[in-house]
Design brief:
It is a single chain. It contains three helices and eight strands; from the N terminus they run H-E-E-E-E-H-E-E-E-E-H. With 147 residues, the chain is an alpha+beta fold. Strands 3, 4, 5, 6, 7 and 8 form a six-stranded antiparallel sheet that branches. A two-stranded antiparallel ribbon has the order 1-2. The chain is elongated, with a radius of gyration of 18 Å. The relative contact order is 0.19.
Length: 147
C-alpha cells in the first residue's frame, strides 16, 4: 500500500526536476541568434519556432507573414513587445532581439526582427530556447505583436 503513494510521488519529483533543469538551460543565450548572410536564421526541426524569412515559407508549422515596414512600424513593434512583457536585449534599428519569459518555469523565448528596407518588410522570428513543443505560444506571441 505504501508503494502506491511512493511511486507517484517519485514520478512527480522526477518531472519537477526535469522541468527545473530545462528552465535553467533556457537561461543560457543560444548561439543560434542573429543574422547569417543578412537574414534571420532558419527554424530548427522542432515545432516551437516561427519565421517570416523566405527559407521558412515552405513549412506550414514555421511559416508566418512578415510585417509591412510603414513609417513608425519598427517603433510600434518594439513598443508592443515591451507592452507584452518582452525585454529588449539589442536594437540597432535594423536588427532587434527581445526575450520573453514564461510565467511558471521562466522558460525564455527569443523574438528577433530584421528590417528589409529593399523589400519594405520587417521579418520576424520567434523561437523557444528549450523543449520541442511550445503549444503554439511563439506563433500566438508574433500574432499579438503584429496585431
Amino acid at each position: 500500500m505504501k508503494w502506491l503513494l511512493i511511486i507517484p510521488a517519485l514520478l512527480l519529483l522526477l518531472g519537477l526536476v526535469a522541468y527545473t533543469f530545462m528552465a535553467i538551460q533556457s537561461q543560457k543565450t543560444p548561439e543560434r541568434l542573429g543574422l547569417k548572410q543578412g537574414v534571420l536564421l532558419p527554424c530548427p526541426d522542432s515545432p516551437n519556432c516561427v519565421c517570416s524569412e523566405a527559407h521558412s515559407q515552405g513549412s506550414g508549422e514555421h511559416a508566418i507573414a512578415p510585417v509591412q515596414a510603414a513609417d513608425g512600424a519598427w517603433a510600434k513593434l518594439k513598443k508592443r513587445m515591451i507592452d507584452l512583457g518582452g525585454i529588449i536585449e539589442q536594437d540597432d534599428g535594423h536588427y532587434l532581439h527581445a526575450t520573453f519569459r514564461s510565467p511558471l518555469f521562466r522558460y525564455v523565448d527569443d523574438v528577433e526582427l530584421r528590417l528589409d528596407s529593399a523589400q519594405g518588410l520587417i521579418h520576424i522570428r520567434s523561437a523557444s530556447r528549450v523543449g520541442r513543443s511550445d503549444f503554439g505560444v511563439n506563433r500566438k506571441r508574433v500574432e499579438q505583436i503584429v496585431q
